[in-house]
Amino acid sequence: MLAAFALLAAACGGDDDDGADDLTDAPTTAVDEPADDPADEPGDDPADEPGDEVDEPGDDPVAGDGPCDATVPGSELNLGVFVPIGSLDPLLASGALVGGTDLAAIYDTLMRWDADTNTWVPHVAESLEPNDDYTEWTLTLRDGVNYANGDPLLAQHVLDNMERMLGPGANASRGLIARVDLENSEAVDDSTVVFQLFKPWVEFGYLLADAPGMVVNPALGGEVDDADVSVISNDPNGAGVGPYVVEQYSPGESPYLVLTARDDYWGGPVCIETVNMVYIVADQPKLEALDLGEIDLAFFRTANVIAEARDSGQYDEAIFLQSAGETLLINNGVGTHTDVTADPRFRQAVNLAIDPEVISDRAFGGELLGTKSLIHEDSAFYSGVSGVEADLDEASALVEELKAEGWDGTVRFNCRDTNPNLPVALVASLEAAGMDIDATVTDQVSSITAVVTQDFDIACWGWNISDSAVYRQLDFNFRSDSTSNRMGYANPAMDDAIDAVFAAEDLDARRAAIATMSEIFNDDIPSVVYAAVEEGYMISDRVAGIVPTQQTVLLLGGAYMVD
Fold this sequence. Notes:
Elements (H helix, E strand, L loop, with lengths): L1 H12 L58 E10 L18 H8 L3 E4 L4 E4 L2 E6 L5 E6 L13 H11 L8 H4 L8 E4 L2 E5 L21 H4 L22 E6 L7 E5 L10 E8 L3 H9 L5 E4 L2 H10 L3 E15 L13 H10 L2 H8 L5 E2 L21 H13 L5 E7 L4 H12 L3 E7 L1 H9 L5 E4 L3 E2 L3 H9 L13 H12 L3 H18 L2 E13 L3 E2 L2 E2 L5 E2 L4 E2 L2
Parallel strand pairs: 1-10, 1-11, 14-15, 14-16
Antiparallel strand pairs: 2-3, 4-5, 5-7, 6-7, 8-9, 9-10, 11-18, 12-16, 12-17, 12-18, 13-18, 19-22, 20-21
Helix pairs in contact: 1-12, 8-10, 9-11, 13-14, 14-15
């Protein structure tokens, strides 16, 4: 189990664009009232309307007067996670889907995402200001922020932490940190960092809201145990400035992580004394535990379960749209692959063979947020560029053309076993176009391993391009030299388009740059998008003050239990 957790962290932890994104407990039967799912109604933007508001937009949940004068003895929050974290060291684990909330509770983040205003706002930081062309950013830290061992947080530690994040580990922030000219960035005093960037980045705040903004105390971050593993992987106490310290970390047990409130948190009193991180494998029993009051909030990614929770009217929610949440990853010519996958005509054939409506009906009970567009129509970043629609006749013609040139029609296909109807539906679609599919349906870890080691032709996958992390996911997956580009896709025009997204000064400019990306994607079809997904947390009325930040990370410092 420990090995599996470590692999999950390596594959998807820093890369919520890939491995973890395809670990879906997908529905296998239709729900009673699919039309009641707000995600199915045109015009609703799940990223902007996550149900009842969890917090007021722009408010810092942990600064100023709070709902308690001191930690409430005996208060306890039980949180049902997506999957347990494999390490408590941000370098070796996720900054988002796998363990992002766990890590934020321990280390906190310099910035946070405000979904209501679509902006990055200071959290541990006091301010973050750019120069005129967004190539220089000045970060100012709040006064009086200390690590849990009492050491002060200093500006130099922010730069040291970025250098540390470039070291060997599972977190995939390296590509984004590489946009920072660390050699010429400097801490001008104990509270101020001036970052120099190689290229303009208008939304630089994102980087400081993800793992690079979870600053590790340098006095502890370099320590390793007898197995040459960082000590803070298992015992991070004193290493973070967050509201909680670790009381117990027991991978494989439930709860696997128990956190205890600090009494000297920079944001004021931490109301809830104990947080228990609990792992329940499937979404349906997780919802049952939520209904029974056994847990207080829970992560969901299964469409019919989210719909059921919504229909009950019992829960606040922090559920967000993830474009390209369901994809077929195609090997563009790296690692171990069948030669034909490097041919763009093959990739076009696969794309033309996959009809989102067919996959939705056969594998998702008709509830799939089906689309062939790279960015879903309900995203704030949707540019108006739709995807290439399915056309089985054209797909078959391309397959016959490739066979006439010597391909025997055989191709390997790998998919997870969490939704047995999904690989059946996908294989049937590909075989209908004349392909001979050598299918492997396996457990999540093995499926991830095949892609991470680049031993695949076609694989079930997901990029999870959230509105809060659009920069990260586009850069990780499509930039030619990205270490998270599992498919080996390379196009200088796409690299330029990615740079234009980073440099865009407003939403319209961003959409225009993403339109260019989408057009290039439609021409190249490096992989196949057939749906977006919704994912996030349902929150009972027993708890309040929880604040979502980038992707699906929650900040717990201002949370309190409701009588």
